[in-house]
Amino acid sequence: MKISLLLALLFLSNFALACRCAEQPLAAYFANADEVFIGTLLQTQSLNEDERQFMFERHGLPYKRQSGSKSQLPYVSNKSTAACAVAVQPGAVYIVFAERDESAGHAVITSCNGTRIHRTSQGDQFGFTDVAAKFVVSQLTGLAGLEALRRIASVEVDAADVDNAAIIGLLDVAALTHTAAVPVYAVPRQTDADAVMISSYDDLQHRESGYEVDAALVFAEVAGWYKVQLRDGGFGWLAPDAAGTFWPLETLLINRLTYFVQDWNRFVWPEIGAGIPRRLSYPSERPPREQAVKIISSQYIAQSLWFEVEVLQHNACEGKPEKVLARGWVPAYTELGEPVAWFYSRGC
Question: What is the Cα–Cα distance from 56 to 160, expressed in whole angstroms?
Answer without folding.
Answer: 47
